Amino acid sequence: MQMVMTNETADRDFDCLTPAVAGLGYIFGRPKAVAALCVITLSGLGWLYFALLLARLDASSNGTNSAVVQALCRPLAEGAWSAASIALVGSMWTAMALAMMLPSAAPMIWTYAGIAEAAARKRERIISPFALAAGYAIVWLGFSVIATLTQISFMQAALLDVNMAANGALFSGAIFIGAGAYQFSALKYACLNRCQNPFPFFFTNWATTRSGVFRLGLKQGLYCLGCCWAMMSVMFAVGVMNVVWMAALGAIMTIEKMLSGRRFTQAVGLVLIATGVSAVLMAVASHWPAQAG
Question: How far is CA 133 from CA 42, 53, 87, in A?
Answer without folding.
Answer: 9, 25, 24
